[in-house]
Amino acid sequence: MTEKQALHEVFYCSMLTPDLPPATVGSIVTQARARNAQYGITGLLVFDGMRFCQHLEGPHGAVETLMRRIEQDPRHTDIKVFRRGPLAARRYSGFGMGLAESEGPDLMAGIRALDGEAALAHFLALRPSFDING
């Protein structure tokens, strides 16, 4: 990706399909890291054992293609997109796709209770408390 390409971001939360083991997330992240690096996508996925909250950034077409794949992925249910739009500068330049596990469901449930920009702002404010594996 050249720096002249416009950056795009998507922030969403979803639920892990019932009856799938939480270990499913490890295989999702392993596959996603290689693919996302190839397309210039960076971001952070936080998982609390039931809920995903993910913030993606990168070239517009690549991020939207990824979102369509996520929306069709049977491992995700109840997808709620909070923010989708242009981004001035990357927030996750230090690593490709970070993974953090949240302590209990309360943090992610709190984000889902918010709307749009408020949900993204709350997620970003929590970021320093996450133990991120890049």
Automatic annotation (TrEMBL):
Instruction: Kindly give the SUPFAM superfamilies that the UniProt entry links to this protein.
Output: Acylphosphatase/BLUF domain-like
Domain BLUF: residue ranges: 7-98
**Coiled-coil ranges per UniProt:** none
Q: What is this protein called?
A: BLUF domain-containing protein
InterPro entries found in the cross-reference section: Acylphosphatase-like_dom_sf, BLUF_domain
Q: Which organism is it from?
A: Variovorax beijingensis
For this protein, what is any one GO molecular function term?
FAD binding
Q: Could you tell me which Pfam families the record lists for this protein?
A: BLUF
